[in-house]
Amino acid sequence: MQSLKVAKFGGSSMGDHVSMLRSANIVKTHSSQLIVVSATYGTTNLLEHLMELSKGSSYEIVDQTISKLKDKHLEICNQLDLEPIYVEKINQIITELCTLIKGTFYLNEITPRAKDRIYSTGERLSSTLFQGCLQSVLGNQFDVDYVDARDFLITDAQFNKAKPIINEIEQRSAIIRDKLINNPNQYFVTQGFIGKTIEGETTTLGRGGSDYSASIFAEAINAAEIQIWTDVAGIATTDPRICTTAKIIHEITFKEAAEMAIFGAKILHPTTLVPARRASIPVYVGSSFDSDAPGTWIKENCDYKPLVRGITKKDDQGLITISNPHMAHAHGFLAKIFEVFQSHDVSVDAITTSEISVAMTIDMIHLSNQSFIKNLEEMGKIRIERDYSLVSIIGNKINTTPGIANKIFNGLGATNVRMICQGASVHNFCVLVDQNQGETTVKNLHQTFIQ
Asked: What is the pTM of this model?
């Protein structure tokens, strides 16, 4: 049976006509028959800006911004020398956008449902262009068809952060799988990030959801491989912008990669690996700007499992401490606290407990949710601290290796540590530090364990 490959290209890989041609040639070289694309570089931010403008600005400014978006994509279309049908498709999508924006402008309100429809414009524009680009690169002996992801990636109705309905997606994707298996010259181009409810309403998976889309599609068609093409050559031992001695990791396990993604590594969306791991599909991360450079393979098992694989940093962390004397020897107290977190859709990154207190780190954006804070105050006296970085040491057997804590604190030097979280996973050791000490902490720990 033919091995199916899914390739995903990010915004930088869709940035202009040169980037698209380069990405199309990667598809040709690797025979990746299902291609998932993000919006062209900067487009999602432009759409966000457009939505803000539609709430109170003059419509002339709104119209100028839409024209800027339209001109950007028509210019790429012209530079790729695509047929007139692609110009028509671009104009149709822009016309739909104009209608949506006019509605929000005159209502002076943007609902979550309207946001998702507006957001979807970016991926629909880029996938239209890339379909034409790939067809010209592959030639007429190949069939390159446009697939509207919304017809296959079915989600719940949680707009702006929808959850996929896996069984429904698999059933609908059977037709894609069969066509690809039966015709090696068949290629499909579709969109990341967007989906649709059973009732037909457009949804999005949240920012960064294109990687997740690729993984969902790969699971649904029983692909043998997922390729994530970005602007860097794989996953590094830490952020190269912080530490110039960072090294590319050529092989990493699903568990390690998931920990790195959750705790701050920017290369992969944290949810990307869930479908891939569930279906045991290896994931390759490489650079579309240098496709010959060795990237990173993410697999279930690796031959080389170092004590420390990488160092990550997650900024803008808040620390919430809840104290209640009645917590001592009381059953169900933590459960009640986490019910509050669940009801407000807030995730905890690190947690420590004492006899009468529990301390948790969360993204600071949630601290502005007054309802969330009020519900927590019902649990006991709360203390809120801001502007921390959660620095994580990711690796293997970290919770059973003698002397590692001593080595970590020697590496930290004079850095003040507000909280430590270790023991829940064999793969990480976390320290919470002041955000202005975050980069120094990463550099020191990278030098201690990896250089």
From this structure: 0.90
